[in-house]
Amino acid sequence: MKELAPRFAALFAGLDRAYGVYRTNGERSEKGKAKGDAQTLRGQVTPLLWEQHLAGTQRLGIVPVTDAGTAHFGAIDVDTYDLDLPSLEHRVKTLQLPLVVCRSKSGGAHLYLFTTGVDASLVRDVLTQWASALGFPGVEIFPKQSRLANKDDVGNWLNMPYFEADLTITYALYQGNPLSAGDFLAQAEGARLDAAALQAIEVQGIDLPAGAPPCLHAMALNGVPEGMRNNALFAFGVLARLDAGDAWQDTLQEFNDKFMDPPLPFSEANAVIKSLERKNYYYPCEKPPLTAYCDKTACRKCKYGVGGGDGPEDPGVIIDSITKVLTDPPTWIFCIAGVNVELDTDDFISQTRFKKRVVEKLNRLPRTMKANKWDQYVNAKLAAVIEEEAPEDASSQGQFRAHLRDFCNRQSRGTTKESLVTNGLYHDEEGGLIYFRSTYLEKYLDQQKFREFNGRRVWAALRKVPGIKHGQDLIKGRNIQWWSVPLEDVAKENFTVPQISEEEF
């Protein structure tokens, strides 16, 4: 499998500065999901990691979105563990969707899309629409973000297929049968699409106006059984009024014949028409069967979707999730419509500041809500907050140490102790020490616009650095106070970021 590793790495090219590892423990959740320990590690994704994955020694996870906001692959994650995978593959083929169906480790499915490297927001949009068309609205879509919040944000990763490739349970299907790793690569590499080809794809077998909401696509595909037809036809009537103009009644009758199973009798269909004639009703999103297919994030982007929101208790933007990074003070990452936005606590306690940050990042102005409604809305989101340990360099002390490292590695450092007088930095090669003066370090920190520490706080931060010593010498007739630190403790290659726990998908 070693020769296949570079091809897997190229096919699943994602974020190049972090990856996931996962170890199952043999247990399963009540829903059948395999349990285990998941971690996100900072570092480059190498062919060796893929070799270990394919050999079955260490499972690998890849973050699909890159720092540039592009994606070479995406996936619909179907967490249903009694799936008929051959039937699902057949459904994908019937709709003529360019997806490769893979079994997940828990028996669900990852439906992969492969691209030449297109905008991650486009990948998210099309996969969200296709998930609804396949009857899986609201499932997780990867990439989970179309843009990362900053250089420390690592997004969310997805477990890769073909772990222990020779005996794998995470295989792709072709005509109902498992594919070998090599055959999977050949199929997936040939299925890559550029942006133009991806945008040109239309879900087959659904005769609806372009811009129809995803719930109506799903009902058009799956049919609407008795008991739910009145609500469904009403929703189709809203679409007809928005798209067909004066001919909307005739269009609604066509929808009734095509999508209701069986069609509503003329009298009942006519009653729905008369209800729609009274005023400009909107979609009954809270009623079945629409609730089963509801995907508000995708719906807002549709020409005939719900648009700006659901009313005064909705800010008009979807907050998908909130991550609390345990820095001091905490850093909050709000995933808003697929974009990770970094906030501090005051940025969402104050609705005005929240709106400003969203406008700056998304070019969208959220709706102003009543203060108590805003508090209730945010509290509901915070109830499901994900806490994440901060990398060392995300804390003030960690950032200070990173700046100290860079300061000590400057080319201007001298080779004699007299250098402490002229440039405040001296490398004692024989002793393996770096000597420096704190006043010069403070000037450097100010140049780098790092103003978390100054004066006595710099001294306090220095005392926390491993191996550091403080002293003074008479140099060129002056009493010079200095600090020293072992060179190996400030060598660039020794500054690593600890492992961070991360939920695995």
Q: What would you say this structure looks like, in words?
A:
This protein is an alpha+beta fold and about 500 residues long. It folds into four domains: about 1-120 and about 130-200, DNA primase, PRIM domain, CATH 3.90.920; about 215-300, no CATH class; about 320-390, no CATH class; about 395-495, Orthogonal Bundle (Arc Repressor Mutant, subunit A), CATH 1.10.10. The protein has helices at about 5-10, 45-55, 85-95, 120-135, 180-190, 195-200, 215-220, 230-245, 250-260, 265-280, 295-300, 345-350, 350-360, 370-380, 395-410, 420, 440-445, 455-465; strands at about 20-30, 35-40, 60, 70-80, 100-105, 110-120, 140, 160, 175, 175-180, 320-325, 330-335, 340-345, 385-390, 425-430, 435, 470-475, 480-485, 500. A five-stranded antiparallel sheet has the order 8-3-1-2-19. A four-stranded antiparallel sheet has the order 5-6-4-7. Strand 5 and strand 6 form a beta hairpin. The chain starts with a helix and ends with a strand.
